[in-house]
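It is worth pausing here to work through a concrete case rather than discussing structure prediction in the abstract. The textbook approach is simple: state the sequence, then state the predicted structure, then interpret. We follow exactly that order.
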Amino acid sequence: MNQLDSQTPAEALAKLDAVRAKRGYLLPHHGLLAITAPEMLEAYDAAYTAMTLTQRRLTPHDKEFVWLAVLISTEEALATHHIAKFREAGGGDDEIEAAACIASLTSGGCSLDFVGDHWRDHLPTFETRPMRRRLYRAAIDRLGVSDRLVLLAQAAVAVCLSRWRDLRWTLEDAYAAEIDEFEIAEAIELTMFPGSVPNFVEACDVWRELVVAGDVSASPLFESWARMTGQGGYDEAAGKTRTANG
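Step two, the predicted structure:
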């Protein structure tokens, strides 16, 4: 009998009680990890605590706003505790509507891409990026959300939806607006669980490529990260050609 087989129901429930005490709720995967991989539950909880429960650069209000946009874009129905946390941090229903608008407009960006990419001969004055900006402003201006917060949420949603061109544009706009790089990073890092780690990895590479190309004016710290060699994973180490992201 291995160590997991010898774990009693009371011991597993004690682990879950500790998680519930910290968060105020439980989700189904907490229980499964508690009985099958308690060390993974501990590591997962530590990562989630650092990512979500620890105060970093974003205020609780701003972090929960980004969370809501992420959850809407990934259709994550179980995480309604973030609605309560947003309201506790002073957020209002108009702002929740704004988060939904950001997720919806980013998701629907493929329609703008289609017109810009395939109908340019018929609509020579159509420009996808300015149209995208106008749509965001028309939808969100009346809801009282700052440009800074809109851009942070846009970046996170673009990661969740694998909208890499949108992410590039949003990062460029965020730098132009002089948004703190650590705030941008925190917003993107919130996507790791709901939006997938592979998408987060790709997002970091998109950001890195923008810095290396000189398309954004990164701080010395972020510049040093971007220019560090050997970040191309196995393919780079093995001398294989990596397909450029779209």
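Step three, interpretation. The domain at 60-237 is CATH 1.20.1290 (AhpD-like). The chain is about 65% helix and 0% strand.
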